Amino acid sequence: MRRTRPAVLRLALCCLLAAGAARGQLPLLDPFADGWRSGDRAVLAVDAATGWPDSLWAPPRWQPGWRDALERLAVLEAARPDSLLAWRVAAALSETLRFVRPDGPAPPLPDLPGFADLAPRAAWRRGPVAGPPPAPDRRDPGDADSRLRACVREWRRAWLAERRGEAIPWPRLWRAVLALPPGDRSTGWTLWAALRRARGLSLAPGDSLDDAAARRLAGLRPGAVPWRELDRWRMPADAAAGLGAALLRGPSLRRHLAKYPRPPRAPFWQRHWLLGKWRAAHHAGWLARRLARRSDLAPLGRAELLRRHVDLRLSRGDTAGAAADLALAVRLAAGSGGRTERLVRAMVERARVLAEHRGWRSLARRLARLVAAADPPPGPYGEAVAQVTRGEAPACGRTVAAGDPVLPPAAVTRRLAAWRRWGRLLERDGRLAGRAGRRLARVLDRCDPGAPDRCLDLLAAACPDSLRPVLREAALCRDLYRLAPALPRRPSPLRAAVRRADGPGRTAVRHLLLGVALLLDDPAGQLAAAVRLPGAGLPDADRLLLTHPVPAEPALRRALAAAPADPCLLLAAARNESAFDPAARSGAGALGWLQVMPFHHDGGAWDPRRGPRWQDPLGAVRLGARLLADACRRRGGDPYLAVAEYNAGGRAVDRWLRQLGGDPGPAVFAAWIGYPETRRYTREVLIDRQLYRWLLGARPARSEPTTPSRPRS
Q1: Residue 74 vs residues 90, 485, 508: alpha-carbon distances, Å
Q2: Is 630 within 8 Å of 623 (Cβ atoms)?
Q3: DSSP letters of 559-599?
Q4: In sequence order, which ranges of 429-522 are alpha helices (DSSP H)?
Q5: What pLDDT score does 31 carry?
Q6: Which of 51, 140, 167, 201 has the smallest number of CB atoms closer than 10 Å to its CB?
Q7: Residue 602, SS3?
């Protein structure tokens, strides 16, 4: 390695540490917090005597990605083109530190000519700054990582308090565990239960729960709370009846329902009570029908019981009983609207396609009169919807030849031109009102799609003061990822800013953020902004170009082109799984760009030496492509079966095929998918895949059938 520049290294190291500390993301690996975030089972290991987690104080490690970035930053020569990128990163980090501590002394900058001119965007430093950003835990109450960091901090504070001989602050720790998102709350509850049991204490502080705490506990896995423990807690009557029905099974559930024979009044708890009653009766049809007829129950809970009962009747060939239940569901949905109406409509459609598949013509004609299919909209989207609905989505063949080095170009100029035309349309409709709208209108006049750097300067100068820190952070992330692609990716700051800009009168801000996301190659921010903008009057080609991002990062594009699965299918899956956020985590524990469960990662999603594997989009693409390719191979190239298996698992797909029997076509299977989320996911992914093929002008690498091959169970 060449000799490093000490001044550059010291400056970059100081700024990196300060910036990471201010944002709650140090360039260090915290084995306990990062392992918890990655679904590592080692986090659940506790000391049997004290109940404290074994890895609570595991020593932190320097993130290899940050180390690589610093080494590259230090050895770049001034004569090399990459040195501009290195200095831009260093200058941006110094600006971040100055912004974080506006009242403190500025960090010393090396006395080199032109240093100030190499900052990411000089226009961003003009004018007053609105003040330091709020703390990460207060910045976004719904941010899963913020809540997890707050919970880990409370665990360590509690350990230190006990070590000093003080009482453990149980209420603070309890609130931190309950505030976790569902995927993390299960791990937090396991650790909480071990700590309380090691001291012989009840699992609930003071043996009492309010309704809000009980609602959060209702999402735990069955058996997380024993019946005797649950029966001792003091809580509102509705919460007590519903929580026991959600968490108990077997004889404990029957004892609980005998204690609470009447359903709760609150719809949330009523739904849990109804499903618990249904399980305790071993899915008895008479009970489902009797409960569904009760007018004092909420329509949604009654419709869900009928849906389950209709599936059982149809699988047994009881068409008359299924028709009677469906007629009752239709009467139930009349006037209910919202989720109940959508659920009943899906019930009737599923029953109709099964009746056609089994040859029950009388039932099929009767159900066809209940649901009138809406005509798809004109244009590429409507054509994709019609093709997928008919079961004619192309088979799982690749659409880019394996020899192609990258996907077709991202065409930043085309996207900027489409963004500019969209802005002109919004201006004509009077949607760019206010100060931000006038600033954006001036940018549209001066922005040249052929000069993206100049456009970014204009947008940065026009953005409100409150958004300048967000733009600075987004540019810093872009430069850092170019400098060291192995860095763990962070949630898109532009995506969070777009969400905060929701509401009337904020159209100009969202359109401005869309332009910034295009220029900084932030597909998550681009998608979040594009889908929130009114698109009436915009040509289909322009709208799809902006609502269906294609990453411009060269390494990521090469990984997509070299993947064993169709790149268009991978892009469609990423759009629906994570909205292109490499740091996304679902409530079920799925991780990363393609939302892969931790057990699919070789060696787990958490690497004790290198950190979280799942936050690397390149690794996520390779792993997700391998899983999708395996599913396509197992299912004979049928994309409906393969996408459903990727979302719900192979066992669920096999169960639905057994229920259908015979040789169902793709359209029948797509309508019969038992999980509403998987049914919607399969449809949307295949539609988006068709739109990506149209956008990219993708060509098949080999001849592919228009209609997929028949599914194999």
Answers
A1: 10, 16, 41
A2: no
A3: HHHHSSS-HHHHHHHHHHHTTT-TT-B-TT--BTTTTB-GG
A4: 434-446, 452-462, 468-483, 493-500, 507-519
A5: 85
A6: 167
A7: coil
Q: Using CA atoms, how far apart are residues 186 and 207, in angstroms rounded to an integer?
A: 20
Q: Per-residue pLDDT for 400 more than 80?
A: no
H or E stretch including 606?
A: strand 606-607
Q: Express each pLDDT in 312-338 by its tens digit.
A: 888 888 888 888 888 888 888 876 767
Q: Residues for the chain: how many in total?
A: 713
Does the pLDDT value for residue 403 go beyond 50? no
Q: At 262, is the secondary structure helix, strand, or coil?
A: coil
pLDDT of residue 698: 59
| Mean per-residue pLDDT over the chain, rounded | 79
Which residues, 6+ apart, have CB-to-CB distance to 226 below 8 Å? 252
pLDDT score at 12: 44
pLDDT surpassing 80 at residue 492: yes
pTM of the model: 0.82
Using alpha carbons, list the distances in angstroms from residue 672 to 10, 49, 662, 711: 61, 51, 14, 14
Angular region, 39: left φ>0, alpha ψ -120 to 50, beta rest: left
| CA separation for the pair 14, 7 (Å, rounded) | 11
Q: Which of 287-301, 468-482, 598-612 is least confident?
A: 598-612
The pLDDT assigned to 408 comes to 60
List the Cα angle 621/627/633 in 5-degree steps.
130
Structural contact between residues 332 and 289, judged by C-beta atoms closer than 8 angstroms? no
Q: Which domains does the chain have, with CATH numbers?
A: 202-368 (1.25.40), 412-549 (no CATH), 555-696 (1.10.530.10)
Q: What number of other Cβ atoms are within 10 A of residue 99's Cβ?
A: 19
H/E element, 61: strand 61-62
Q: Where are the alpha helices (DSSP H) in 6-135?
A: 6-22, 31-37, 64-75, 82-100
**pLDDT value of position 22:** 40
Of residues 526, 485, 512, 461, the one with CA closest to residue 616: 485
More confident residue, 399 or 627: 627
Based on the number of CB atoms within 10 Å of its own CB, is 243 exposed (0-12), middle (13-18) or buried (19 or more)?
Answer: buried
Q: How far is CA 81 from the centre of its chain?
A: 37
pLDDT above 60 (res 658)? yes
DSSP states of 538-565 as a string?
A: --HHHHHHHHS-----HHHHHHHHHSSS
**187, amino acid identity:** T
Is the confidence at residue 88, as pLDDT, over 80?
Answer: no
Tens of pLDDT, residue by residue over 541-575, are 889 999 999 988 888 888 888 888 899 999 999 99
> Is the alpha carbon torsion for 307, 308, 309, 314 positive or negative?
positive
In this predicted structure, which of 184-198, 297-311, 358-372, 632-646 has the lowest mean pLDDT? 358-372
CA dihedral 234, 240, 245, 251 (to 10 degrees): 50
Q: Which of 12-21, 436-445, 459-468, 513-522 has the lowest mean pLDDT?
A: 12-21
Q: What are 237's two structure tokens?
A: 């009557």
Q: How many CB atoms lie within 10 A of CB 516?
A: 24
User: What count of other Cβ atoms lies within 10 Å of the Cβ of residue 208?
Assistant: 11
DSSP symbol at 399: S
DSSP annotation of 640 reads H
263 and 270 in contact (C-beta within 8 Å)? Answer: yes
CA nearest 608: which of 231, 59, 75?
Answer: 59
**Geometric angle at alpha carbon 296, from 293 and 298, rounded to 5°:** 85
Q: Maximum distance among all alpha carbons in the chain?
A: 86
What tokens does 582 get? 């490499």
